[in-house]
Amino acid sequence: SPDKLAKIRDDLVCIARAAGEMMKAADPSISGFDSKRNTSDLVTETDRAIENMVCRRLQLTHPTINFLGEETFKEGQKLSDEPTFICDPIDGTLNFIHGFPNTAISLALAIAKKPVVGVVYNPFRDDLFTTVKGQGAYYTNADDIVRSLPIRPVLPPLSLHKSLVAIEWGNQRDGPNWDLRSSVAHRLLSSKAAGGAMVHSTRSSGSAALDFCYVAAGMMDAFWEGGCWAWDVAAGWCILEEAGGIVASANPGDWKPELEGRLYFAVRAAKRDEQRAVVEELWRLMAGR
Ligand code: IPD
């Protein structure tokens, strides 16, 4: 019920704030980090300690809800239709290690593989983004001022040419996914594309979860990344949709992506047809047309 989901959101906010204290207290330059799949895919003791704390607290308060977390994920583990908490303890681990303050915990509840509650919290800027499906999306900043998203409700007409687009690089530096990422970035920025650059510019904040929230807040216009995992996008996805945005998969024609789809576009604009036009343009760009 809507009340139950709102209670879950409140629980997730409490947990996210506790995680934020752990992030601020940690010094990753002292505690060190490990590589997972390659030298850019990093994990710290704090990632693991936070996921442990989140999982324990959720199992105590919501024992019947499944848990999927970045650091405890096992190859082959699938997101089921059952209610599932999806946790990225530190989205933007590389930023965290370097002390670049664009790092967040991302917590979501998904039912039937669709996110219905989302909480993204960056403790270094005290930025909190929350939503419950059907109840609006909210941004609370360091001054505890709660604002309804989108923050800029009346947006100028959106076209890709006038957009600030978030793109992320992930951790692979070779293979087909790398080729796709670099060719899309090249085409977005190159002035050869259409007698001028395809977009105003691109930004890579280092946190997919926060990118979704920035698009939701109208600070950026679109987000594109090939190769995300469910924990990177679940909470931001829900926040963006509640703010009036859309999420599409990178497979042309796929307007109903699944959380396990891995390739995503997120777009927000005042009008549905503008959003769709931007996604369709991105689809053409990906295909090199
Ligand atoms: C990563 C960040 C990054 C994105 C990667 C993610 P992590 O999450 O969101 O921006 O490019 O695809 O895996 O590893 O820092 O939790």
UniProtKB/TrEMBL annotation:
Its EC number(s)? 3.1.3.25
Binding residues annotated for Mg(2+), in chain numbering:
70, 88, 90-91, 232
Record keywords, A-Z: Hydrolase, Magnesium, Metal-binding
| Catalytic activity field | a myo-inositol phosphate + H2O = myo-inositol + phosphate
Instruction: Please give a single GO biological process term from the UniProt record.
Output: inositol metabolic process
Query: Which cofactor does this sequence's record say it needs?
Result: Mg(2+)
Which top EC class is given? hydrolase
Taxonomically, the superkingdom here is Eukaryota
What terms describe the molecular function in GO for this protein?
inositol monophosphate 1-phosphatase activity; metal ion binding
Which residues span the membrane?
Answer: none
Q: In which pathway does it act?
A: Polyol metabolism; myo-inositol biosynthesis; myo-inositol from D-glucose 6-phosphate: step 2/2
Q: Which family does it belong to?
A: Belongs to the inositol monophosphatase superfamily.
By what name is this protein known? Inositol-1-monophosphatase
The protein's organism comes out as: Polyplosphaeria fusca
Question: According to the record, which residues of the full protein are present here?
Answer: 52 to 340 of 344
